[in-house]
Amino acid sequence: MLTxxxxxxxxxxxxxxxxxxxxxxxxxxxxxxxxxEEQGVREAMIRINGTSDGGAxxxxxxxxTREDSAVGKWLAKNGEGVHHIAFGTADVDADAQAARDKGxxxxxxxxxxxxxxxxxxxxxxxDCHGVLTELVTAAKAAEDH
Length: 145
Ligand code: CMX
Ligand code: CO
Description:
The chain is α+β, with helices and mostly antiparallel strands. It has helices at about 15-25, 70-80, 90-100, 140-145, and strands spanning about 1-10, 30-35, 40-50, 55-65, 80-90, 110-115, 120-125, 135. The protein has a single domain (about 1-145), classed as Roll (2,3-Dihydroxybiphenyl 1,2-Dioxygenase, domain 1), CATH 3.10.180. The chain is globular and about 45 Å long. It comes from Actinacidiphila polyblastidii.
C-alpha cells in the first residue's frame, strides 16, 4: 500500500546552487547527500517532515554525473524542474507487482538501491499520464538518521 509522498525528484544543473536556493529561500537544510553511480546522479535530500510509518518526505535534488543518465538526458531536453514523484510503501515488491498486474510498465525486474539504502523502482511515465513515478521502501536505518 502506498502510504505517503516519499519525495519529489527535482533535476538541476548545479546541486550546490540549488541547495543554497532552498536554504536561503525556505530555511531548508540538507539531511543527506550521496552519489549514486548506477543512477548517474549526485543528490541532496532535504527532509520536509516525518511520519509514523517509517519514513519522511523529502525533496530530492538531482544533478547528473553523466550526460547519458536519465536525469542528464531529461535536463538537456527540458531544463530544470520536477523530474519525478515518489510514493512511500512498506513493501515495494508487492506494490510494483500490483502495478505490473494492472498493465503498467515497471522499469526494473527487481527493486534497486536508492537514496539512504532505500529500495526503489520506477513506473514508466507513458503509462502514468506523463509522470515518472518511483516507488520507495525506506531503509529502517533512515528513520533514526
Ligand atoms: N517525466 C515524464 N516523461 C518523461 C520523463 C520524466 N522524468 N523522462 C522521459 N520522459 C518521456 C520523454 O519526454 C519521452 O516522451 P516523448 O517520446 O513523447 O518525447 C519518453 O518519455 C522517452 O524519453 P527519452 O528521453 O527517450 O528517455 P528514455 O526512454 O531513455 O528514458 C525513462 C526514460 C523513464 C525510461 C528513464 O528516465 C528512466 O529509466 N528513469 C528511471 C531512473 C531515473 O529516473 N533515475 C534518476 C533518479 C534516481 C532517483 O530517484 O533516485
Ligand atoms: Co527519486
